[in-house]
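Ticket #4471: structure export looks truncated?
Reporter: QA, pipeline team
Priority: medium

Steps to reproduce: submit the single chain below to the structure queue and open the exported record.
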Amino acid sequence: MSELILQAMLYTLTFFAVVTLIRLLIGPTASDRLVALNVLAAVSLALLILWGVSTKRTLYLDVALVYDIFGFLGFLAITRFLKKDKEES
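Actual output as written to the record:
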């Protein structure tokens, strides 16, 4: 039963990742794309955690933690870049 739930969650998160990727590609503004990128990072983090739980490997959990840290730092860097670009306009 738990395998069925994990598989359903994996398929649902994969669907959300595809929808978010579409939004990332067609977002009309830079802030829409930034939010979509942040959501995509969160969905991929959840996929890594679920994959680690379903395969019972802690390596995926360590990778997810490092990925989350770098994703947050990248989000901050892009936000600063967009803020500087907006101030110059």
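Status: closed, not a bug. The export was complete when the record was re-opened. Leaving a note from the reviewer for reference: The chain has three helices and no strands.
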